[in-house]
Design a protein that fits this description.
five-stranded antiparallel sheet
């Protein structure tokens, strides 16, 4: 009898009480981060006070989902949960200012396809019960780079 091979599922993050609104929004296909009502700045990672002015007057707001690539690494070391794919682990800067760690999808994991400052757009990838924000090159960027969107 032959055992069935189940494709690996990359690990999903575990929401905390502070990050639950972020993950709830992602499940709806919306990128939402916190914004301070006192100094009017967006910030990330989730916390109960503004990282800039320490005000507790903060709210969750939907953002554009547009970003630029700040830095990345291609993980060529085998990760069983990702199968044979070499994930691109990246730092992106949202148009609203905050930076976040993510994965870049939709391009080969090669440096010639990962230009710093390239324009990106959020999309959401299922990881079990969680929808994970990942980023893909914007269509016009992909065309310039010789890729298909």
């Amino acid at each position: 009898m032959t055992a069935l091979t189940v494709p690996p599922v990359p690990p999903a993050p575990l929401p905390t009480p502070e990050s639950a609104p972020y993950w709830d929004a992602a499940r709806e296909g919306v990128l939402r981060i916190q914004r301070c009502n006192s100094c009017r700045r967006h910030y990330f990672y989730p916390r109960s006070f503004c990282r800039y002015c320490a005000s507790a007057d903060v709210a969750w707001t939907a953002v554009s989902g547009r970003a630029r690539l700040i830095s990345y690494t291609v993980n060529h070391r085998p990760l069983p949960a990702f199968g044979s794919v070499s994930p691109v682990i990246a730092l992106v800067e949202l148009d609203e200012g905050p930076r976040l760690m993510t994965n870049i999808v939709g391009v080969p994991p090669l440096p010639e396809h990962l230009r710093l400052d390239m324009r990106l757009q959020v999309e959401f990838e299922a990881r079990g019960d969680i929808m994970l924000p990942v980023f893909r090159p914007e269509p016009e960027t992909a065309q310039k780079e010789g890729q298909t969107a």
